[in-house]
Amino acid sequence: MLLGTGGTIAGQAADASDNVGYTAAQLSIADLTHGLAEPEGMVLVAEQVAQIDSKDMDDGVWRKLLARVNELLGDESVKGVVIAHGTDTMEETAYLLQAVLNPAKPVVLTGAMRPATAVLCDGPQNLADALAVAAWPGARGVMVVFAGKIHSALHVQKSHCYQTDAFDSGDAGPLGVVEEANCRLWQPWPVTGNRSVLINALLKAARWPRVEWLTSHGNATGRLVWDLLAQRRLQTQSGADGDPVRGIVVAGTGNGTLSEGLIQAFEEAQSQGVEVRVCSRCARGRVVSGGAATVFDTLALPPAKARLALMLDLVARA
């Protein structure tokens, strides 16, 4: 199954030499399959799930995608799922699918850094590589396949804003590469098991818990935290149908360190029942316990995934 969600891979520009001034999510997933070879012994079925620029990804689209992929994983005729997705939030969608569905079948996300109208568009090769991985014997778990590399959903991050080789797996490194439709692994496929019970809770919930992500920096006073708490109190007191903050992830400097202003604000947030988690804003490495960050619970994830992890934790404890 090939699921379309839009993104740059489905984008168009007025000029074939323009790789920046394009509009994302213009072509359907059916359009992108023209000339795409099916893996040997497989039948490719395309389906449009959403048609957005992935910077506009929200809980509604994620809910729809989770439901459809969960359904397909239970279909014995489905060997694997490939998702054409915008690159801006691809790592978040990959993490969410892995954390919730933990699939024993391959679920492969891919996309493009150049629109479909580009002279040297990268989408077709990325799609072909993703299909090859999804059809590969023994493949399992959620992965991002991009620029010939196979990344685990747990480690992948978008690391470049323009180059076609835009994704990186940090210290862990990629799982392997795709070479002429063949997979060469450097690490085992992701460990998978039973699907999380969270899928039912997420699909039934009228609204997912609101979790914000802030970053520590020079002159960080904590004012944004105080503003969030003030808004939360007003919503609670008035009984208005709002969306009060339930959790905050802060990307600390270095090993998760925070300014004194942020520490005071987050301590107050915790006293008011708001969950606080600390990670690092550094591109590589994860917070090592024992430092100043241990004032609050830490998450060994980059900020975008840490926000989702805290949201899922809140759902699990609801």
As a percent range, the share of strand residues is 15-25%
Identify the strand order in the major beta sheet: 2-1-3-4-5-6-9-10
Rounded to an integer in angstroms, the radius of gyration calculated over CA atoms is 20 Å
Tell me roughly what share of residues is in helical segments: 25-40%
Shape: globular
Topology as H/E string?
Answer: EHEHEHEHEEEEEEHEHEHEEH
Tell me about this structure.
With 318 residues, the chain is α/β, with parallel strands linked by helices. Helix content is 29%, strand content 20%. The chain is built from eight helices and 14 strands. The protein has helices at residues 29-32, 59-73, 90-101, 123-134, 198-204, 223-238, 260-271, 303-316; strands at residues 2-6, 46-52, 81-84, 106-110, 141-146, 149-152, 157-158, 167-168, 176-179, 182-185, 210-215, 245-252, 275-280, 297-298. The strands form three sheets. Strands 2-1-3-4-5-6-9-10 form an eight-stranded mixed β-sheet. The protein has a four-stranded parallel β-sheet with strand order 11-12-13-14, with helices on both faces. The two termini are 33 Å apart. The model has no long low-confidence stretch (mean pLDDT 94).
Put the structure in a nutshell.
The protein is of the alpha/beta class and 318 residues long. The protein has helices spanning 29-32, 59-73, 90-101, 123-134, 198-204, 223-238, 260-271, 303-316, and strands at 2-6, 46-52, 81-84, 106-110, 141-146, 149-152, 157-158, 167-168, 176-179, 182-185, 210-215, 245-252, 275-280, 297-298. Helices cover 29% and strands 20% of the residues.
